[in-house]
């Protein structure tokens, strides 16, 4: 691309940035989750032999090769946080049962020990999740031979009032209460994250002062939905658009359904100036324009108080997040995962973890490498 082309691309990028700023203003309440996740340690868990990752209270972006463990990292953080959020004065014995059940429901292994690092002989996985403002982390372990047995070593003495939310690659707004009935009454292969999130989507919108706060926060998202609001009726979700009427969620474009899920979760208070959002590949099935809207929505949500965790393959959404999060009072943590390809068996190779506060400082970004390789092939035609 020549200098003129680069300048034209720059003008388009700036125009797009101004367009996004029109929807997402720069006035934010500097709220945050009561106890943001500050650190994850994991040894011999899944593809991770021994990792220690410091996390941002605002935005955490996980990138890496296929099968490097991006989704597993998000699911692990979600599982521990969800158990603690739902816990009500649980004992260690109770936590042992609840953590085992959650890992089983979220990861769906044939038995719990399958989540340990593949190795000869018996081994043991250990996980630690540290929360800001709480002295004791959640630390638990289980053996490679475990069916449903977990041993909790330590756990936070304080409650986690903020709700964790896990959004899978598929949108869930087109599902309704019938999905909950199916999940609870039949044996299915759906991950428990689907049930958890559909259940949260069923929570009605807030009223009163907190409802007004939610309406203020949700305005930029509604603008992207042509002023629409999301509501549930008869177990189904609809988008109400001024002057147009009600449109079934199943008839919306997927990008709009994904944004509508965020609208619903803010309106109900789940992600109102707090909460933990784990989103696995938000770019799935979206065109670049929708990816851009989602990226700016994530930044807006993080600046409004939610702690965000995103796993992505998209270089486009990575650059949008990078360009939109430049704020001295806003922190972003990029987590790069890559497998060591030097051995004979790449599928069982150790996953190497690198972290940085800027995307360009990561040691390796698979999406960037693929994009550069494609550009070289295009220019050499």
Task: Write a short abstract of this structure.
Residues 209-318 form the ATPase AAA-type core domain. InterPro entries: ATPase_AAA_core (IPR003959), Bact_Antivir_Def_Nuclease (IPR051396), P-loop_NTPase (IPR027417), Rad50/SbcC_AAA (IPR038729). By secondary structure, the chain is an alpha/beta fold.
List the helices and strands and how they pair.
Layout: H1 3-23, E1 37-45, E2 48-54, E3 59-64, H2 70-86, H3 92-107, E4 124-131, E5 138-143, E6 151-154, E7 164-167, H4 177-185, H5 192-201, H6 208-224, E8 229-233, E9 236-241, E10 245-248, H7 254-267, E11 276-280, H8 288-303, E12 307-311, H9 315-324, E13 332-339, E14 351-356, H10 366-379
Parallel strand pairs: 3-12, 3-13, 7-11, 11-12
Antiparallel strand pairs: 1-2, 1-4, 4-5, 5-6, 8-9, 9-10, 13-14
Question: Can you offer a commentary on this structure?
Answer:
- With 381 residues, the protein is of the alpha/beta class.
- It has 10 helices and 14 strands.
- It has helices spanning 3-23, 70-86, 92-107, 177-185, 192-201, 208-224, 254-267, 288-303, 315-324, 366-379, and strands at 37-45, 48-54, 59-64, 124-131, 138-143, 151-154, 164-167, 229-233, 236-241, 245-248, 276-280, 307-311, 332-339, 351-356.
- The longest helix is centred in the first third of the chain and has 21 residues, at 3-23.
- It is globular, with a radius of gyration of 21 Å.
- The chain starts with a helix and ends with a helix.
- Residues 1-21 have low confidence and may be disordered.
């Amino acid at each position: 691309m020549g200098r003129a082309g680069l300048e034209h691309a720059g003008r388009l990028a700036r125009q797009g940035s101004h367009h996004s700023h029109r929807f997402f203003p720069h006035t934010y309440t500097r709220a945050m989750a009561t106890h943001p996740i500050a650190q994850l340690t994991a040894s011999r868990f899944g593809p991770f032999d021994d990792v220690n990752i410091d996390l941002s209270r605002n935005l955490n972006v996980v990138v890496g090769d296929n099968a490097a463990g991006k989704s597993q990292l998000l699911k692990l953080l979600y599982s521990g946080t969800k158990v603690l959020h739902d816990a009500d004065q649980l004992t260690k014995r109770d936590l042992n049962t609840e953590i085992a059940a959650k890992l089983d429901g979220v990861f769906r292994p044939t038995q719990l020990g399958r989540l340990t690092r593949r190795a000869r002989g018996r081994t043991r996985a250990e996980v630690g999740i540290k929360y800001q403002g709480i002295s004791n982390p959640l630390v638990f372990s289980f053996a490679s031979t475990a069916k449903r047995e977990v041993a909790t070593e330590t756990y936070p003495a304080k409650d986690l009032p903020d709700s964790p939310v896990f959004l899978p690659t598929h949108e869930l707004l087109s599902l309704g209460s019938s999905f909950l009935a199916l999940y609870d009454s039949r044996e299915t292969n759906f991950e428990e994250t689907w049930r958890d999130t559909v259940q949260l989507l069923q929570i009605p919108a807030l009223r009163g002062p907190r409802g007004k706060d939610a309406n203020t926060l949700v305005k930029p998202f509604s603008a992207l939905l042509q002023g629409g609001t999301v509501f549930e009726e008869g177990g189904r979700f609809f988008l109400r658009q001024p002057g147009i009427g009600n449109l079934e969620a199943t008839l919306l474009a997927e990008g709009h359904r994904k944004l509508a899920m965020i609208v619903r979760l803010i309106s109900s208070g789940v992600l109102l100036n707090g909460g933990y959002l784990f989103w696995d590949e938000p770019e799935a099935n979206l065109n670049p324009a929708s990816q851009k809207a989602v990226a700016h929505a994530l930044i807006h949500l993080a600046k409004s108080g939610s702690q965000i965790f995103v796993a992505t393959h998209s270089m486009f959404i990575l650059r949008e997040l990078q360009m939109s999060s430049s704020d001295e009072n806003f922190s972003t943590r990029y987590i790069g995962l890559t497998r060591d390809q030097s051995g004979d068996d790449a599928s069982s190779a150790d996953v190497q973890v690198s972290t940085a506060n800027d995307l360009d400082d990561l040691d390796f970004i698979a999406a960037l490498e693929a994009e550069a390789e494609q550009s070289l092939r295009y220019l050499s035609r």
